[in-house]
Amino acid sequence: MLTGKPTAGQRSGVSTPCRQITQIWRASEACGRRRAAHSLVVLASEITPDMRASILSAMEFRGFGDELNRIQEPLAFLKHLVLHEAAHLVLPDGAGEPECDRWAFERLAGRFT
Ligand SMILES: [Zn+2]
Fold it and tell me: How far is CA 79 from the centre of its chain?
């Protein structure tokens, strides 16, 4: 679990310092600095059906309802999850959850803009 409650930076999608992660409290987390050589994407050891449902629900709320059928298969869901966390590390400061979802869906489709 991340030590303490998520900070404002974590809630806005800014990556977490790796040393703060002692146990993951959600399905995935990016840690490190943006564009740093030693950043990590950390995944929960088990992604429960509730975690998955919560993630899909949040993406639908953010306007990606039409895209969700592309990540129904577990491997596609996992790929999107990792790409989404990578987006937190490579996109410019201020990129939020919708931008990270969009970036991940583009890469899943083979578009690298
Ligand atoms: Zn995110």
Answer: 10
What angle do helix axes 97-108 and 74-90 make, rounded to 10 degrees?
120
Stronger pLDDT, 26 or 77, i.e. the higher one: 77
pTM metric for this prediction: 0.77
Q: How many domains does the chain have?
A: 1
Structure tokens at 108: 């899943």
Helices (H), 1-113: 8-11, 49-59, 74-90, 97-108
Given a contact cutoff of 8 angstroms between Cβ atoms, the answer to whether 32 and 38 are in contact is: yes
What domain range includes position 21? Answer: 8-108
* Ramachandran sector of residue 50 (left: φ over 0; alpha: ψ -120 to 50; beta: rest): alpha
Q: How far is the CA of 1 from the centre of ligand 1 (A)?
A: 16
What DSSP letter does each residue of 57-84 carry, written as one string?
A: HHHIIIIIGGGGGGG-SHHHHHHHHHHH
Q: How many angstroms separate the alpha carbon of residue 30 from the centre of ligand 1?
A: 8
